[in-house]
Amino acid sequence: MPHAAGPLVVGVDSSTQSATALVVDAGTGEVVARGRAPHRVSDGPGRESDPEQWWEALAAALRQCGPAARDAVAVSVAGQQHGLVTLDGRGAPVRPALLWNDVRSAPQRDRLLGRLGGAAAWAERVGSVPAPAFTVTKWAWLAEHEPEAARATTGVRLPHDFLTERLTGRATTDRGDVSGTGWWATATGSYDEEILGIAGLDRGLLPEVLEPGEPAGEVRSALPGLPLRPGALVAAGTGDNMAAALGLGLRPGRPVLSLGTSGTVYAVSQQRPADPTGAVNGFADARGDWLPLACTLNCTLAVDRVAALLGRDREAVEAGGSVVALPFLDGERTPDLPDASGLLTGLRHDTTAGQILQAAYDGAVHTLMTALERVLDADADPAGPLLLIGGGARGRAWRDTVLRLSGRPVLVPEAQDLVALGAAVQAAGLLSGEDPATVARRWRTDRGPQYDAVDRDEEAVERLTTALDRAKPLLAPR
Ligand SMILES: Nc1ncnc2c1ncn2[C@@H]1O[C@H](COP(=O)(O)OP(=O)(O)O)[C@@H](O)[C@H]1O
Ligand SMILES: O=C(CO)[C@@H](O)[C@H](O)COP(=O)(O)O
Questions:
Q1: What is the whole-number distance in angstroms between the Cα of residue 351 and the centre of ligand 2?
Q2: For the whole model, what pTM was predicted?
Q3: How distant is the alpha carbon of residue 31 from its chain centre?
Q4: Interior/surface letters 376-389, b for 16+ CB within 10 angstroms, e for the rest
Q5: Pocket test for ligand 1, best of 49, 261, 418 (most atoms within 8 A of CB)
Q6: pLDDT tens figures, 2-47
Q7: Least buried of 46, 173, 275, 420, by fewest C-beta within 10 Å?
Q8: Residues assigned a catalytic role
Q9: What is the pLDDT of residues 257-302, one digit of tens each?
Q10: What pLDDT does 48 receive?
């Protein structure tokens, strides 16, 4: 282990596919140890994951960090947003968690929209028109399909709340992650009793919402198999996208594109978002500002699936041709087409497999680029670099596609695991009393190669826009 200049902190990313733990020198931002352990997500009609598995993966990732984890004096857990974790009186999951990318609650979402006066009323109140990703729609689905599970539930948590509570013994959440539930009003900064009433959820089942900079508690003693020091400070944690924003020390108006299981585009804003079209989710960030964000369900996994179907390496793309792929294998959230499936159009005799694969990348990136125009507020620099993060940022085909369809320069931070790093930033800020943005900028986490802008491929953008418009009746069967 290198000699550390400052105290050590731990940052955790409990994402859709895995848990990543980093032990970081709070003085310099140097990552002194890293561990990663996978999670399982169900396939079939829904997307579920056992929260006990997240806890085991967290412990396994920490064990991989070796003795450094036990030396850490502060810890923070960031997690995939929106997931519905239902707990019984002993703190055990009543059933597997319903994840953000489970679209079964689309009919419940439609009914909830009507009960509060429509999309615009939701946007004005909670900052977002809830997608079927939002926790409130999942609770409504559970109450309707598994009423006995809903009745057995005495605690409702988000993924990062669940893990943080296991560490501290205290039921807490933060303003960033809670802003993706649908039952926390960004207009008032509090739980919305009317929405809770409509959803049939008792306020007493929910955790306390911590203010930015407030601690969640301390690591409890007697956590067998967990190599963390009892008494280490535990920060509030937050949702994964909010954590990446912390990790980058993101300044308002700087756009981020994250390519992971989900594709997300976002920027910090100082104005509270409320987009009545539903394209932009008006989340709170973890520092007291806002994080307008658009999210797609089909990103790296969908493109990797197309590559596997074609029997090609994910980098084996070919330019040219007129094929268009709308890779909505999981249904889609942006655009709002929960019942959609994948669509291929424009095939010709001379279309190659590499062109079909390139079309899948184009389809995944195009929806994010269209959403980016709505995410950025009037103050944002329209020509500034896009920060490219997430597992896909390591792929050349992803990077080239983003350059070609955005027309912007692209900066790929050298720092990897920006969600876990953002959690570490939060833990370090809690320890020193600094603003997390100051910590991240001291750590210089946004350093990395910048790729020059190329002319936007207007022909491809036009083909995709037209195909999407024409295909909507086919993709929205309800
Ligand atoms: N070298 C690479 N090139 C392209 N894609 C990659 C590379 N390494 C990982 N990925 C993609 O990154 C994805 C995981 O990204 P990640 O941001 O860790 O996801 P999540 O946070 O949703 O669990 C995988 O699905 C894989 O397709
Ligand atoms: O639903 C959203 C954002 O609103 C997703 O971004 C989830 O937070 C999952 O993130 P990853 O596991 O793909 O990082």
A1: 34
A2: 0.96
A3: 22
A4: bbeebeeebbbbbb
A5: 261
A6: 566 779 999 999 999 999 999 999 999 999 999 999 999 999 889 9
A7: 46
A8: 240
A9: 999 999 999 999 999 999 999 999 999 999 999 999 999 999 999 9
A10: 98
- Strands 172-174, 208-210: pairing kind: parallel
Strands (DSSP E) found in 192-269: 208-210, 215-218, 233-235, 238-239, 256-259, 263-266
Query: Which residues are CB-neighbours of 209 under 8 A, at least 6 positions away?
Result: 172, 173, 174, 175, 178, 184, 190, 191
Q: Write down the ipTM of this complex.
A: 0.98
Residue 298, number of CB atoms within 10 A of its CB = 28
**Tokens 């902190």, residue located:** 9
Distance (Å, whole) CA 304 – CA 84: 27
Which pair of structure tokens corresponds to residue 327?
A: 């890779």
Distance 328 CA to ligand 2 centre (A): 16
| Single-letter amino acid code for the residue at 333 | R
- Residue where the block lists tokens 């008792």: 202
Cα–Cα distance between 458 and 250 in angstroms, integer? Answer: 29
pLDDT at residue 6, rounded to an integer: 78
pLDDT, position 56: 96
As a whole number of angstroms, the distance between CA 347 and CA 98 comes to: 37
Ligand nearest to the CA of 138: 2
User: What SS3 class is residue 417?
Assistant: coil
Q: How much is the CA Rg of the chain, to the nearest whole Å?
A: 21
